[in-house]
């Protein structure tokens, strides 16, 4: 028996059933500071901050026998106490949970950093305007969708607050293209103090190094700036992160340490990650793109024939 946040677990270690592969929703702190879960499981149950309904009694995937409590750990993983089955079910946030989004007829929002040449509004202090080069990565993502869906600049107050947080809307999946230095939404999710909104890792610099730090304060990756691309350079490091925010939306962030890195992130997502998405079971990936050293692929842009090396990854 173990005790965490006032809940007595019936098993140690918790039993993991690959959640939330069939679950979309939010787990975290709700009104009054209590842990709760809200969302919908494919087997038919729905949970809100107050209660769950449609639960199927049993011991299989998506079934419970007297669910007695819920707790969220410091990494955002969700544990549901399934008292009647003498177990704890573990919900993990994973890139693989994006499977199927390409077929959505609605519910996807793509947010791009506003342009310096023709800005449409203001951004939080510390967030700049990009030159327009991130429009190519947007094309990679939008081309994967079943039809045209919402697209917005990070300065559009109809979709994004002044702090950079997307407004609550009908969008279930939000793609954030570009990093925190040029996209207010990326800035918000990587710097917010709201636990349920914090991205798995955040980008920064230390001396002459690029540094990614996880939300527990542990350094996930350090790379020298000197090894990165100076356009038209031949290498860049990029991040792909997937997590659920406190409004229950799936947030997909992709950006590089240069514009070519952001391009490489979108290329990798479309042509390498998504076709093999069931094997990408973690919440973030930090990857180096290196241009081919010879042949047709030696063209200073991310494409087939280039090398992609995963440098760091973790569940959340």
Description:
By secondary structure, this protein is mainly beta. The strands form six sheets. It has a seven-stranded mixed sheet with strand order 14-13-15-20-19-21-22, covered by helices on one side. Helix 1 (about 135-140) packs parallel to helix 3 (about 260-275). The protein has helices at about 135-140, 185-190, 260-275, and strands at about 1-5, 5-10, 15-20, 25-30, 35-40, 45, 50-55, 55, 65, 65-70, 80, 85-90, 110, 150-155, 175, 200-205, 210-215, 220-225, 235-245, 250-255, 285-290, 305-315. Helices cover about 10% and strands about 35% of the residues. The chain has two domains: about 1-90, no CATH class; about 95-315, no CATH class. Residues about 1-50 have low confidence and may be disordered.
